[in-house]
Amino acid sequence: MSLECGLVGLPNVGKSTIFNILTKSSVQSANYPFCTIEPHSGITEFDDPRLSQIASLVRPEKIRKSFVKFIDIAGLVKDSHKGEGLGNQFLHHIREVNAIAHVLRVFDDDSITHVFGDVNPLRDFEIIQSELMLTDLQTVEKTLQKLQKEFRVKGSVNSDLIRQVEELKSGLESGKPASLFLTGDNKFDSYVRNLLTGKPFFIILNISEAELDDDAQVEKLKSIISMFGEQETPVIPFCPSLEEMMRNMDEDERLRILEEYNMPMSGVDLTCLAVMKVLDLITFFTVGKKETASWLIKEGSTALQAAAKIHSDIAKNFIKAEVISFEDFISYGGEQNAKNAGKMRIEGKDYIVQDADIIHFRFNKAV
Ligand SMILES: Nc1nc2c(ncn2[C@@H]2O[C@H](COP(=O)(O)OP(=O)(O)OP(=O)(O)O)[C@@H](O)[C@H]2O)c(=O)[nH]1
Ligand SMILES: [Mg+2]
After folding, report:
1. Containing structural domain, residue 320
2. Which residue, by CA, sits nearest to atom 4 of ligand 1?
């Protein structure tokens, strides 16, 4: 199953423009609201420098980078939850994703229509959040009705569950996102994660070069970032024209541009990191002459879950995992030398995979 991140926001804020850059696609982006109707999907490969380091020792025929699928979703408007602006259909597309990237317009450009007439990213975020919360409220009300009906028919019901759903309902009514109601109880939490405001999210601020160019604009941008900063939500400044420009540059030129604009890394790289952070992902590597690859899994996953990420057959016929840490692999100059130095560990199904582990899965191929 691939990891999916949906781009969500008001119409005409630049979602498709950013999607095209993230996924090297060319879906239509144009200066009118609801340019996108059907969702588009595309993948973004993660540029993990550790994979290049490993590959320079292994020299494989093929390098396979880990990736996340991005979905470009149509714009939402006020009252989308009541079907306004085709909203209901679009909200349904958001339900499918694992994480949400809220795209907010910060760039100032009179020639590009803003559905509310002026640029105000915080207001726009609150409008979208409240649409998502109102949609969740409808879902939660339906769940409560179902549970109450079950109680009438069976005469008994899980009262803890009813209490949890009721708390969630009053939370949503008072403007709290569902994510605040995660309990640590797996079953209830997977219900919450299926709600739109129960999903992990981060923010992409769509900026122009102007916002990076002069000090006053940079200060304005910083103050917008700090408004979101309180809840540890990653906030990413993303400048489509700069990203476009850097796409075909060599590494040195890219670094020069980033330095010039005082950016730690490209918007694409920052977005990848944000997805990793909000979804609690770590990377493991598999190494071979034919293919050397990086894979993303949830932090805390077992060796068996990591095997399943590659192929269900490897998990089904799992024998053991041979693990070398990234540091040992590099400092001993590859698998064989690390193994000779006693740096390879044999681990079982329940081993908790660590970030950057290099894993060789042994499995029964005859089955
Ligand atoms: N000046 C400027 N224009 C931008 C920027 N990002 C996007 N645009 C323009 O804004 C318009 C809308 O961009 P889209 O990417 O189609 O917006 P969208 O959010 O996908 O819009 P819908 O699909 O209608 O919801 C296009 O004309 C883009 O060229 C930006 O950073 N600066
Ligand atoms: Mg679009």
Report:
1. 300-363
2. 14
Does the residue 198 lie in any domain? Answer: yes
Answer yes or no: is the C-beta of 85 below 6 A from any ligand 1 atom: no
Residue 200 falls within a domain, yes or no?
A: yes
Instruction: Tell me the CA end-to-end span of the chain in Å, nearest whole number.
Output: 23
| pLDDT per 10-residue tile (average), the chain, 367 residues | 88 94 84 75 92 96 95 80 66 88 93 87 92 93 89 76 92 94 87 94 92 80 76 88 91 92 91 94 96 96 96 93 97 95 96 97 81
Q: How many domains does the chain have?
A: 2
Say what the pTM is.
0.91
Does the CB atom of residue 109 touch ligand 1 within 6 A? yes
Cα–Cα separations (whole angstroms), residue 355 to 35, 49, 64, 234, 316: 40, 14, 17, 20, 23
Report the phi/psi class of residue 185: left, alpha or beta, with left for phi > 0 and alpha for psi in -120 to 50: beta
Tell me which residue has its CA closest to atom 8 in ligand 1: 14
Would residue 156 count as lying in a domain? no
Read off the tokens for 170. 């009053």
The C-alpha atoms of residue 132 and residue 151 are separated, in whole angstroms, by 29
CA 177 to chain centre: 18
Q: Which amino acid is at 120?
A: N
Q: Answer yes or no: is the C-beta of 75 below 6 A from any ligand 1 atom.
A: yes
Distance of alpha carbon 210 from the chain centroid: 27
Amino acid at 146: K
Question: Residues 312, 359: contact at Cβ < 8 Å?
Answer: no
DSSP lists the bridge partners of residue 100 as 6, 201
